Amino acid sequence: MLQLPDLPYNTYSDNPLEAAVLKRLKGFIENQNSFKTQWKPSRVIWRAGELRLKKAVPFVLRLLDKGDEMQLYSSLWTLGRCDEKAASAPLKTYFHHPKASTKINRIAGAGLLQLVEGKEREEHLNYYIQQLPEDVRNLLTSYTDLSNLLEEKLFGKKHTDYDFLETLYLLSVEDKSLKKIIVSILQKIPLESGYFRAVRHILKIAELRDDFEILGLLSYRFERSVAMYKSPRVTKTHGYQEIYRVKAELQKKTSSVAYSDKTKAYLIRKSLRQLKEFGEEKRAEYIKLAISILISYDPKIDYKAAYSNTISQYSKKLQIWETLRKNYPDYYDAVLMNLILYGGGNRLSFTGKVWVNTQVETINQQQNWNRYQPSPSTPASPPSPSTDSGGILNRVFESIFGLFAHKPLSIPSATSTSSREPQNTTPQKINIVREELYPDLWDKTPQAYIQLLLQAKVDKIHQFALQNLSQHPDYESIRKRIDLKMIRLFLASEYLIPARFGLGLANQHLGINPNRSLVLSLVESPLSEARELGFKIIEKDLENYFEESIFVKNLLFSTYIDVRIWAKKILIKTPIDISKQQLLLGRAIAELFELAEQNDKNNSIIKDATSILLQICKDTLIELNNQILVDLLAIKVEATQIFVVKTIILKNTYPSAVILCSLLISPYTSVRKVGVELLIQLEEHLQADPAYSSFLVNYLVPVLMSKQSDEALHHDIYMILSTQLVRYLGEVNLVSTLRLIHSNYRPAQELGALLLEKHVNPNQLRMKQIVDLGNHELVVFRRWCCQYYEQNLNRIKFEREEALQLLDSKWEDTRLFAIQFFRQKFEAEDWSPEVLIGITDSTKVEIEALGKELISRFFEEEQGSEYLLKLSQHPSTSVQLFATNYLERFAAGDITKLQNLNFYFRSVLTRVNKGRSSKARVFRFLHQEALKSEEAAILISDIFRDISATASIEDKATCIRIMRDLQTKFEHLPLPLTVLDFEDRI
Length: 986
What we know:
- This protein is mainly alpha-helical.
- The chain is 61% helix and 3% strand.
- A 4-stranded antiparallel sheet has the order 1-2-5-6, with no helix packed on it. Strands 3-4 form a two-stranded antiparallel sheet.
- The chain is flat and about 125 Å long.
């Protein structure tokens, strides 16, 4: 049983808010309320958790399971935040509780992770690892592969269950690399059905942890993302039905809707409340959250250019119409960014949707009698600090999210200070206007400015950070604490303001003996001014700087073309000995393997770098191992392959067969062209070295049968094999030849035709393979097949069954040849009833006709019964008609044959609107046979009895007439007929 801690003796606290929360919690336990307002217990418990109020834990433990599920959820969330050992037991209980809902288990597990330590913590984390999908679990330590897998799972093909993201986020508490992957996903995950549930769960856990990196990012995403749908409202047309339908859909795990306009408004209100409360209470969390929000803005996505528009309005005071210009700043729709940066001033105001310059410019004035009196622009005056920053935030809070029914939230002036903290009276260097909310909080944490300079992407944020940092009273001491590593980070920034700030810091650190890593950072900086400074420093001490191969390599492969040009100018004049060449070339080759993506940027860098290497490392390149060249040719970057080509030319020796093949199959035409030229020069070598030529042929032939990125490659390989290497094609075996013939690519098929003509012994082919050639899409193979039939009649007759398959070719020219061939070349002894009936059985009309023609032509009396029986089983109407020709000759007077033909008779007579001639012949034949004997009449009457019940009126009449004749002759024959006598009337 859970041992509850004692309740505190009193609820007094120096903080009035904490005291109020404790007093309300105590009132819930004692069923008393000493406040005028009524709060739900869950709300008070949640507030205690937000304050991390440890004194509240005994109260929360007693209220844990006294209310609804929301109260339980709030209690567990609060216990997880308060870091009290007493909270571990109930969190464990509800984490494993089989009857608790999923969300209760989830928040209890997340809270427990905040409290457990040592082996217990390790076991708890391992539990989460086991909950991951197997493919995700297997890649937990391979971050690149895991990132690629998650990209595919999330954005490649939409699934319905992304709960594993929440589990990964829980695991990221111990793994910074995993945290980076989660942040990357949250930056671009769609806020829509399927995904949003996982995002919402992560938000709750981030609140539990005070993970402001995630909270700020999600606040930004909630602001910038468009709502998926508008929440339905009660209307005369739909009433509450539409609302109920949406609620029912949202309850489904596979809901097709999520993130409504109401949800978006609620989540942004939540972010604003946090900013307001942290700032009002002078808490450092305000800066953490503000920084996370600000660094989330991306100019590539969020930038909106400044613009102006004009409006006309009537001035009652002046009794004139005025034309006014309203100016909107850039990023005018970035609600949270502008609020944080300018919410404490009066230069910008919020209109309800966007931010606009408060000062309106008067363009002209028009009096009532239409006289224009131009007015000069309103002179710009420096904005003054706001005395109502709280009002601005209140207006933003209410106008965007429709909180008009809510009690206005007051925010103190941004320049005011807490009554518990003395006002900062340190004089500023320059009396600048502070427009941000809570400037005193920013100045208390000046490291926040440095973080914004390093991580933010928006110029106005950089400007805000640099201005406040440079004017900070402790700026000099802060500047001295900025080390070389941080300066290099500033210099590497792709944004102008941080890079220039870094350059200024670097200038103060260079001195007489500048740090080499700092100089290299100057040269690698995106800022051209920094690179030029680096050039000047290096030129003063070239010998020492160029001693280091890694330094030279970095210059050669610099992202910036001016660095590469400068390095080339210096290196051409600077001789390098063999040992340094080898070291530099080794590093350069390793860099080539890193730049393995084909794009313009990489090609430009590699082209410049390798052109220098070819000049300064000639001696080393001549001795370069062939296997390295082969490995480099495997990199599908054009500039790298061209470098290999130039190295081969520099070596001036026969390339190995592998290298030559690698050139010939390059995806780049320019490289293949060099390979062909080398092949031409190697003609004598090919003749003298059969193994060399054999390798080339056997290497290139499979390339023709595989898919290539460049369609021209197939054609080029075919031209090489059919010209320069044509005399060596005998190396290709029969299996490869047949694969070429039936390949999906035309050049491969054409090479197969060449091999078939010159290097294949037709007698090695099976008859089925020959027939397949007669079915080929290329006419050259069909003609070859027909020619083979003409020239090998004896084999065709010997393998007749296989050879006859040519009649079923899908190509008309082949079928016509086969019809003429078998009609003219085969005699009576070459046929059997089975074979002729098989031909007749074809679904093609012309082949069926051939079969009937050959049967008539080579018919023999002793085979008549066999023909009749087998033809009668054919479903075709025309064949069944053909079979009636043999009824009277081979079935008349034979009861056994009549029995065997029972199915045939029924098949013919039951056809609807088909085979009228066949029916007539069968009716006539059966009528004759039934009258011959009573045994035959019994057999045939069964057929007519069944047919008469299903046949058309015409056929029914025929059946009745025949059955009447049979009944007349055979009185005792059981037939479904009754003869009625009609009296004669005069």
